[in-house]
Amino acid sequence: MIFQRATRREFTQATAGIFVALFAILVSTLMIRLLGDAARGSILPEAVAALLGFSALNYIPPLLSVSTFIAILLSLSRSYRDSEMVVWFASGISLGAWVRPVLVFIAPLIIVIGALSLFVSPWALSKSAEYRGLLETRKDTGQVRPGTFQESSSGDRVVFVEAISEDDMRVKNVFVSASKNGRVDVTMAATGYQEFAENGDRFVVLENGSRYELMADSPEFRVLEYGRYAIRLETKEARRMEEIKPNQMLLQDLIKGEHRSLKAELLWRISMPVSAIILALLAIPLSFVNPRAGRSANLLFALCVCLLYNNLITIGQSWIAGGKISFLTGLFGVHLTMLALLPLLFFRRIAVFSFSRFFQ
C-alpha cells in the first residue's frame, strides 16, 4: 500500500506537470491566433480574453487524456530504468497488479473528462459562437467612429457618421453606401437613431434625408426623399441561433436526434472518457524499458499507439457522419479494437514463452 500510494503520488505530480506545460502551449497558440484576428479587425480587442477562455475549455478533455497517458508511461518507464520493477517482480507480483493503482488514480480524472466533454465543452462552444455574434452586431453599429468610414461585417455596406451622441443612440449627418445584386444604394440623412425589433435585430432609423439608387449597367438612377427610413443591420443573429452546430448542442438533443452528424458528435464526446481509460491501461505494458538500452524507441511506439487511437476515433466519426457505418459499429468498433491490444501487450511482457527461440 505504501508503494502504491507513492506511485499514485508520482502519477499525480507527473500529470500535473505535463498538463500545465501542454496547457501553456495551447493558451499561447490560441492567444497568438486571437491577437492576430484582433489586429486584422475580425474581433474586438476586449473580446480576446473571453474567447480565449471559451476555446481553452474545449481543449481541456483531450489534454487531460494525453497528459494522463504520458504521465503513467513516463513514471513506469522510470521504474524500469531505475530497476524498481525488478524489486516489484521479485516480490512475486506481476505486471497486471499495476492495473488497480492506475484505475484508482485515473477514476476522478475520468469523471472530470466526461463532465467536460459531455457538458462543459458544448456550452463553451455555444457561448463562444453567441459571443462572436454579439461582437459582430456591435461592430456593425456600436463601433462606428465619428468622422471615419466603417465597413460592415458582411463587406457590402459602408457607413459614415459625422457625430454620435453621448448615449450612442443618435447620430448626425449619416452617409450609407450599400451594394447588392448589381445595384448601389447611397443614403444620406441629417439625423438618425438606433431601434431594436422584437426578434432582436437592430435597425438604424434615418430622418430627413434622400436616397439614390443606381444600377451598375445603366446610367439612370432614382432619387427618393424621405422623412423616416429604417435600415436593418446584417447581424444575422437570429439565423445563427437556428443553425446551431452539432458540437454546440446539449447532450440530450444529440441523443434524441437522428441525423448522422449528431451521432458522429455523440461518438466524439463519449470517446473522450472511454479513450482516456483505455490509454491509461495501455500505458502499463507500453512502458517497458530495457535498463541497458534507451527508452526512445519505446516512447515512440507508445506515441504511435496514441495517435493511432485518436485517428481511429476521427475516422469513425467521419464514417458515421457520411453514413458508411452505424453509430454502434463506430462506437464499439474503435474502442474494442484498441481494447483487444491490451491483453496482447500484457501477454507479450508477462509470458515466458517466445516464438523467437525457435529461430535461434
From TrEMBL:
NCBIfam families: LptF_YjgP. Coiled coil: none annotated. It comes from the Bacteria. Keywords: Cell inner membrane, Cell membrane, Membrane, Transmembrane, Transmembrane helix, Transport. The keyword Membrane applies. It is a multi-pass membrane protein. Pfam families: LptF_LptG. It is found in: Cell inner membrane. This is Lipopolysaccharide export system permease protein LptF. The chain crosses the membrane at residues 12-36, 56-76, 97-125, 266-288, 300-321, 327-347.
